[in-house]
Amino acid sequence: MSDLIDFVKFNEEGLVASVAQDYRTRKVLMLAWMSRESILKTLEIGSVFYYSRSRKSLWHKGETSGQYQIVKDIFLDCDGDSILLIVDQKKGIACHTGKPSCFFRRREGVVWNES
Amino acid sequence: MSDLIDFVKFNEEGLVASVAQDYRTRKVLMLAWMSRESILKTLEIGSVFYYSRSRKSLWHKGETSGQYQIVKDIFLDCDGDSILLIVDQKKGIACHTGKPSCFFRRREGVVWNES
């Protein structure tokens, strides 16, 4: 898989911004970070691994919540510095708050309202 | 608009990762960065402004190409450190390569193929 990885441009922390989108609902679910190791694990296992910047460790999404993201497709952007993960979001919930998507605060006028 | 901005958590460079999604096709178009100023300009004008890290300046998306992104909706994620822009992508093209989306390299086995 090293050929694939060679096209990915990691930032100075060794990370790449990754967006997950539900393949069924087409909802954008979340934005998180992947390391070289998390990409390789994701490719190997077929379920998304991110890198947790707060915990400074590999993070198998869904490991504690069951909210796994099964990989359907992976795209790399033109610059090689962003990844798009098309996933089957298990339980239909991506966010730790219990919302389907982490992007649930919608701008309405001058405030953010929960959607 | 300062109330809105207060909920956004900028990184140490004063930027926030922002994903644009086409409101019609639901395609994820690109991932770029916004500064406080670019968010305020986006809210004021109604067409997306990013912050170009390479040029270190405000970047009105579409200004030279006509590929403007007209804002339909803006979402903030649970952590406040990522933004989702739902846009009307003018000309149906977001990428400087002429592709509809910047995420056109699709993983197929051990290679990225243009989709």
CATH class identity of chain A: Alpha Beta
Mean pLDDT of chain A: 96
Q: Please state the CA-atom Rg of chain A, rounded to the nearest Å.
A: 14 Å
Spatial sequence of strands, sheet with the most strands of chain A: 2-1-6-5
Biggest chain-to-chain interface with counts: A-B, 34 and 34 residues
Q: What would the principal axes of the Cα set say about the shape of chain A?
A: globular
Strand content of chain A: 35-45%
Task: List the secondary-structure elements of chain A in sequence, H or E.
Answer: HEEHEEEEEE
Runs of chain A in which pLDDT lies below 50 for 5 or more consecutive residues are: none
Oligomeric state of shown chains: homodimer
Number of helices of chain A: 2
> What is the terminal-to-terminal distance of chain A?
39 Å
| Helix-residue proportion of chain A | 10-25%
> Would you report the number of β strands of chain A?
8
Structural class of chain A: mainly beta
CATH architecture of chain A: Roll
